[in-house]
Amino acid sequence: MKAANQTRGELLKDERFFAALLVAPGLLVLLVTTTAPLVYLLWTSLHHANLSMPWMNGFVGLDHYVHMLGDGRFWDALRLTAIYTVTTVVLQLVIGLGLALLVLQIPLGQWLFRLVAILPIVLAPVVVGLYWRTLMLSPSFGLFDVFTTQVFGKSYNWLGEPTLALISVILIHTWQWTAFAFLVLLASLASIPPDLYEAARIDRAGVIDRFRHITLPLIRPAIMIVIIMRAMVALSAFAAIYAATGGGPGTATQILNLYAYQTSFVALDFGYGSAQAIALLIVTLAVSAALFRLRRRGGLA
Amino acid sequence: MLVRNSGSNITRRKLLGHSALAGAALAMPSILTTARPAGAQSLSASAFAKANIDWKQFKGEEITVGVIPAGYFNNLIDVVDTFEDLSGIKVHFDKIPPGQIRQKAMLDLSSKTGVYATHAADPMYYPLYVANNWVEPLDAYLADPKITDAAWFDYNDIPAGWRGSCSVGGKTYGIPYDGEATVQVYRKDVYEKAGINPAETLDQFVANAAKVHDPSNRLWAAALRGFRGAGQNMYIYPSIFREFGGEWYDSNKKLVVTTEPAIKALEWYADLLRRYAPPGVENWNWPDIADAFGQGTLATYIDAHNSAGVINDPQKSKVIGKIGYARWPKGPTGKRVTSIWTWSFPINAALPERRKKATWLFIQWSASKETQTATSYEFAGAYKRTDVNRTSLWQEPQYRKLMDSYGDNFVEAATASFRDDIDPDWRPLIPQWPAVGEIMATAVQAALVGQAKPKDALTAAQKQIDQATRS
After folding, report:
1. Cβ distance B327 to B319 under 8 Å?
2. Domain span including residue A139
3. Do A250 and B452 touch (CB under 8 A)?
4. Are B219 and B297 in contact (CB under 8 A)?
5. How far is A301 from B223, CA to CA, in rounded Å?
6. What is the rounded distance in angstroms from the CA atom of residue B404 to the CA atom of residue B423?
């Protein structure tokens, strides 16, 4: 028995070695393509790497991070990132859920709504940004301006006025991605067995009670997934804002990702830009970790 | 006068090095060397034979040149086969949008891959290039009789302001291919009706604007670039800054942007645009301004003289024949300060020696009076350059005739601008310009849209500039 066990153990060891061998190429590719650049980013963030002051280049330790704490523009960018993320996620969730509940009532032709909903998602964010910038929000010619001047007799400079510009980029992101929440929630809603509602109706539970005690708890996992996925994307949003406002006017829509880009590729300070990118990474990881924990604990119900 | 073949054939000569034979060359039978596309321009090799150098000495080299997609480079691309025939050097062009060419060039220069032998360079970037030793000092090239015929090339024929903007610490690093000045462009008919003349001072410019401003009839009084960028609103603001008496450095050689003139200048800029510019101007670059003017919705603007091509394009413009030009209005100091702009060609220091020199031949060819003429009034296509780099060419009757067709006082205003209104301290020439220019551009835009008061915007900018230049 013992001998047999040993051979089996050895066999398992062999197997394990073989398995590792099989996994190795994939792991290596992953390491080279994702981990190595990250480590390099971290390494760069500990250095002066500024093309416009090459004579300063060298190791500086945590200087950039210390500097970041006192950089008003960094905190401002972080604040905008928070506003942008919270508002876009909430809007997507509320509108997406509302649409899904409505569409669920339609007995026929739901596929049509699903199809239409997918359209904005498949557009490249840069295209979306440019499309809104030129066709929807531009002064005098944009659809929004035509609408407001016709209906309210007032013209708004959507991308030229700081607060409106922030609202605009939030609107653009919500427009493009609400469909994602809609589709996920619609699928989740459709999977709720109808007899639950029937039983509730027999118990004389009202619409609101049915929604609160049956619908919400049952689609909670889907809601959490939507929140987590959308929050992570919103935190690192870039292309649509870049195309629509470039972070402007002034710094009104310069979320952290755009500020990091600006620092690295416009101001050519790759050291500090890398530190900002790392900060964004930490924020994103922290937020997702918190959300995942919330999901496991069963909060937010 | 230069001798030029008007035919399409190129004479290929073996003894290009001897200018004495240049005259005789014309009598020699010409040999068709390459089939060229129909309609393409050609320059006579004999014009270049006058240069006392051996054009063929780097035969077989291939170089890639980064340019922006613009008429003035398209014309160069159209005539480059002349250079290829002349030198035996193959030239590839890579057209890169103006918003990306700086980054693409820097990527190439910093990684030392030597993809672009030369590229259309922004003069503000030379201090940065030089700080990193990315480009070659060109004085040795200019002085080497083996590769440069100084008398023929006549480097000093290029206006001093443009030459100076491509040098750092007295050394030359780039050769201007073209150049422009900012001028006042105005609607003659509108001004006549209002009984006003183009502004002599900034105050008058505002007063003029007040007289013609009529947005209910879709006529806005004035526009300046508002779009954020080191080359957009920071192309306009420095002129106002200097006209208000602004100095970029204090007595400790520290870069300061919070001085009284700096604030006054930004107030003037923001105030003008807020009161008299079309909505959305804070996101406008020069093409948007020129389009609005061409559509007849704008009475005046101050921008590159080169935008005259757009507002005189019959397909786009409704105001042809109603356009007049004048110099920048004077500021409170009585100074006029035009912008300094030239696309210039440096040599990538990462190239092998022989290719550097081949690149030099290309640069010399493209900046020569012959090529400048061939891409301007002698060009066969519809677009003829109005931004040539040669003082002597600006005085030639044919060039002036071309310019005069663009409106009243055009050639006079532009010439006077780049001759008299250039200010070497227009913008701070520092390697940190990409960062500083962007910080300032953001501050200017923030003030233009009212996100911050001019003073506060500049104070915030100062803090960031201190950080960006901390050493």
Report:
1. no
2. 63-297
3. yes
4. yes
5. 55
6. 26
- Any CB–CB contact under 8 A between B433 and chain A? yes
Closest by Cβ to A162, choosing from B278, B449, B460:
B449
Q: Do B431 and A71 touch (CB under 8 A)?
A: no
pLDDT tens per residue across span B82-118: 999 999 999 999 999 887 899 899 999 999 999 999 9
Q: Which residue of B has its CA nearest to A64?
A: B467
> What residues of B are in contact with residue A71 (Cβ under 8 Å)?
467
What is the number of structural domains in chain A? Answer: 2
Question: Would you say the C-alpha torsion A109, A112, A113, A115 has a positive or negative sign?
Answer: positive
Residue A10, pLDDT score? 74
Query: What CATH number does the domain containing A255 carry?
Result: 1.10.3720.10
For B453, the closest chain A residue by CA position comes to: A250
Nearest chain B residue to A252 by CA distance is B451
Instruction: Tell me which residues of chain A, numbers 50 to 69, contact chain B at a CB-CB cutoff of 8 Å.
Output: 51-56, 67
Same domain, A221 and A75: yes
Residue A183 lies in a domain: yes
Give how far A286 is from chain B: nearest CA, Å: 28
Specify whether A89 is located in the same domain as A201. Answer: yes
C-alpha to C-alpha distance for B438 and B92, rounded to whole angstroms: 32
Are A103 and A9 in the same domain? no
Q: Does A38 share its domain with A116?
A: no
Interface contact B451, partner A, CB < 8 A: yes
d(CA B468, CA A263): 10
How far is B395 from B376, CA to CA, in rounded Å? 13
pLDDT, tens digit, 9 for 90 and up, residues A16-47: 888 888 999 999 999 999 999 999 999 999 99
Please check whether residue A54 lies inside any domain of the structure: no
Residues of B in contact with A56 (CB under 8 A): 471
Q: Are residues A40 and A124 in the same domain?
A: no
Domains of chain B: residue spans and CATH: 39-179+341-394 (3.40.190.10), 182-337+406-468 (3.40.190.10)
Measured between beta carbons, the chain A residues lying within 8 angstroms of B282 are: 160, 248-249
What pLDDT shows up at residue A3?
A: 53
Q: Which residues pair with B92 in a beta bridge?
A: B64
The verdict on a CB contact (< 8 Å) between B438 and A266 is: yes
Same domain, A128 and A257: yes
Quickly count: other Cβ atoms within 10 Å of residue A265's Cβ. 17
Tens-digit pLDDT profile for residues B201-251: 999 999 999 999 999 999 999 999 999 888 899 999 999 999 999 999 999
Residue A53 domain-assigned? no
**How many alpha carbons fall within 13 Å on the CB side of residue B189?**
10
- Joined together, the tokens standing for residue A15 give 């197997």
Chain B: nearest CA to A253, how far in angstroms?
12
Q: Which of A73, A139, A266 lies nearest to residue B464, judging by beta carbons?
A: A73
Q: pLDDT digits over A53-62, tens only?
A: 888 889 999 9
Instruction: Say if the Cβ atoms of A250 and B434 lie within 8 Å.
Output: no
Contact list in A for residue B435 (CB cut-off 8 A) is 52, 266-269
Q: A34 and A142: one domain?
A: no
Q: State the amino acid at position B94 in one-letter form.
A: D
Structure tokens at A208: 């609101």
Q: How many interface pairs between A and B have CB atoms less than 8 angstroms apart? A: 94
Please tell me the distance in Å from A190's CA to the nearest CA on chain B.
46
Q: How many residues does chain B have?
A: 471
* Residue A58 maps to a domain: no
Two tokens at B160?
């001093």
Q: Biggest alpha carbon distance in chain A?
A: 91
pLDDT tens digits for A142-173? 899 889 888 888 888 888 889 999 999 999 99
Whether residues A98 and A22 fall in one domain? no
